[in-house]
Structure formats: C-alpha cells, structure tokens
Amino acid sequence: MPDEPAPASTRRAVTFLDHRIEAATGHDVDTLWAHRDAALLGEAHAELADRHRELAEAERGVTFYRVLLHRLTSGKFPVDDALFVRIDRTVDQLEQAADARGAAAHRVLAALQPIEAAAPTTPGGEERALSTADQAALLVIAGGAKLHEHILTNRLSVTTASGTRIPYADMQRLEAASLVARDTSHPVHAGQPITLTDTGRAALTARRPPQTAPAPAAGARPGTWPGSPAPRR
C-alpha cells in the first residue's frame, strides 16, 4: 500500500485569515497576489502577500492529509497491520502539517497587524481614490515606461513597454503628485525610465470605496415602465 503523492493542484487554498486580509488591504487575496507578482506592492504589503502564500500552501497540506486519513478509514482497504501503520503515519503527517499551518498563520498575523494599525478608520482619513485614467496609467507604467524627447521637434512623449502612449501632461500630473519618478541620470533624448514611487504603488493598491447601487426612483415599481407625463393644463 504505497503512499500517495501530494496533489499538484495550483488552485489557491482558502485560509481563515482571508477575510481579515481583504478587509485590511481593500483587495481580494487573488488581486493581492497578482499585484505582488507584478511588483506593485510596497514592502509591507509584499511581505504580507508572501507570508499568506506560505499559509495557503500549509493549508493545502493539512487538507491533503485530512482527506487521506478519511480515505484510509472509509472501509476501502482491508483492516490489517499495513493499514494501521499507514494510519499512524498519516496522523503524524497531519499533526506536522497542522503545526506548520499554525506557524505560518503567526507569520501572517505579524505582517498583517502593522497594516491594520495603519488603515484609516474614518471616511475623512481615507486617501483620495485614483481616477480610472490615472489607475490605468500607473498600471502600464509599472510594466516599464520611458520619457522621450524627439531630437528634431523637441516634443516630449511617454511610451510604455506595452506600446501604450501616455500624454505628457498626464505624466507631469502623476509626477507632481509623487506617484511616479524619472531617472534623470539618462538623457531624455535617449529615454528616461519612469517608475512608480512607493506612494504610487500604495495609491494603486489602496482600498477602494465600496460601490453602491443607485437608489430607485421614488414611486417606481419593479418591472413597470415609467409613467406617462401628466398632461399640461
């Protein structure tokens, strides 16, 4: 009765800290991981994403050995010495996996608590949300961008690695807000690299206000057409 290998699933395991992380960061965990892969997170949020990945992996280990133990005791295998040995081994592995999950959870909490402490608690303390245009601009700049000056016309333009062009006026506004920075050690005619600042990364991954549905018009009934206007007198 050979041991079974751990599953190779790439699906993210759900952990008991997911809701708390999402409440503190304003993003679901999948988005947080995606921002980490794209190097859009500041140091604190990047640390949290890394520690949460460790917790998710540990959670998968607990789930695997728990399911395996259930399978061994389901009546599928003959009750013999080999089964008892395997059950004992699986119980030990499950205990080790649970200990690893507990240690990973402590590391997540250590990374999460400073973020929770720094999160705004009142509407007046929240930062102004980025406009859709500025958010899109920061996203493409994060993938690589340069400011160029045309050698003949002296016109300045911003090109990105994805091929998107950003108006220079928009880039100036982002730079004035300390969201992006230029590497002025490069001549502008050769292209000055533009990168997100820590402020820019924080703004891009900041908490988003919840979207609320518009209130229905007074007197309107669901499923009915608007009433005809009253006749003029």
- Class by helix and strand content? alpha+beta
Q: Which band does the percent of strand residues land in? A: 5-15%
List the secondary-structure elements in sequence, H or E: HHHHHEEEHEEH
- Mass-distribution shape: elongated
Strand order of the largest sheet: 3-2-1-5-4
What ranges have pLDDT less than 50 throughout 5 or more consecutive residues? Answer: 121-127, 210-220, 222-228
Mean pLDDT: 80
Give me the number of helical elements.
7
Straight-line distance between termini: 92 Å
Fraction of residues in H or I helices: 40-55%
Radius of gyration, CA atoms, in whole angstroms:
27 Å
Largest sheet: 5 strands, antiparallel
Number of strands: 5
Care to describe what's here?
With 233 residues, this protein is of the alpha+beta class. 48% of the residues lie in helices and 9% in strands. It has 7 helices and 5 strands. The chain has helices spanning 18-25, 29-37, 43-72, 81-118, 132-142, 168-176, 198-204, and strands spanning 145-149, 156-160, 165-166, 180-182, 192-196. The protein has a 5-stranded antiparallel β-sheet. Strand 1 (145-149) and strand 2 (156-160) form a beta hairpin. The termini are far apart.
Features:
alpha+beta, 5 strands, 9% strand, 233 residues, five-stranded antiparallel sheet
Question: What can be said about this structure in brief?
Answer:
This protein is an alpha+beta fold and 233 residues long. It contains seven helices and five strands; from the N terminus they run αααααβββαββα.
